[in-house]
Amino acid sequence: ADRSLDRDCTTLSRHVLQQLQSFSAEAQDLSALMNRIALAGKLIARHLSRAGLMEGVLGFTGETNVQGESVKKMDVYANDVFIAVFKQSGLVCRLASEEMEKPYYIPENCPIGRYTLLYDPIDGSSNTDINLSLGSIFSIRQQEGEDTDGSAQDLLAPGDKQIAAGYILYGPSTMLVYTIGKGVHSFTLDPSLGEFILTEENIQIPNHGPVYSVNEGNFWQWDESIREYIRYVHRTEGYTARYSGAMVSDIHRILIQGGVFLYPGTVQKPEGKLRLLYETAPLAFVIEQAGGRATTGHENILDVVPTKLHQRTPLIIGSKEDVAKVESFIQNGH
Ligand code: P6P
């Protein structure tokens, strides 16, 4: 049945203003900024929907990025989309992304827009070629100081400095989930309107859920405590394994159904694979705002102070009780 007209008019930009209960210049800026992120999401969703129908979307570029990972054409396209939508915005002065060693500056915006966008333009890009869901992750911070040497040292600050964070999930429908610190809200793209329309407000993650999400292919690279946790869920009734290769999908499932997503460190890479500033910190902000938890196993993700822009952290994120269960294995072996 058709929902109320008012509901259909609850677009993302209007919702941000409602959240801020203000029409101040700053509120308008943040609302406009979120709207630009929505535009990036629409452009990326459109490109993904045609990936198999045109040249230059599927497959690899042949280069490797700063992380030594082979770059997929979709990574480059999505990274350029975020830059393009903010170039003409006057809102964002600096963009930091997994795909760029150094931040990208938009000097003409800097006198006005003091916001910095930290983002993973396409998370789970390996899913592009097999038509499975994937996501974009974003985080908004306020630039502190002039950053005259372009080293963005002010970004080396804990996750509670985030003003806004969220993700776009490119699935059967395209969803945008965000928080500005006043709860977690989801929007679904209505392609006929070209608008993200409110789907759920103040999402609360269940305190416990059946899902555990981890790449068990790494089983023998983990610390014994993580193996012990996995043996526990294997022998305990009520757990089910779900792992898609794109953590935005896996964590969105856990936000709705409850459970825990883990990307632990390994013996070779104790810091794990995931990046703090534009992957684990934004997701931790969202999940904590929904009543869940996010930890490295020893420290809350939002408390971690990075020493470098592309710093990695292990990640254990999801329902309070399920995260605590993993911690209990890490901290005292059961
Ligand atoms: P692995 C995608 O590259 C990603 O960053 C997450 O989205 C995903 O959960 C994880 O890495 C997959 O990594 O090592 O399990 O293939």
From TrEMBL:
What protein am I looking at? Answer: Fructose-1,6-bisphosphatase class 1
Q: Which cofactor does it need?
A: Mg(2+)
Q: What pathway or pathways are given for this protein in its record?
A: Carbohydrate biosynthesis; Calvin cycle
Q: Where does substrate bind?
A: D123, G124, S125, S126, N215, Y243, K273
Q: Where does Mg(2+) 1 bind?
A: E98, D120, I122
Q: Which family does it belong to?
A: Belongs to the FBPase class 1 family.
Q: What EC designation does it have?
A: 3.1.3.11
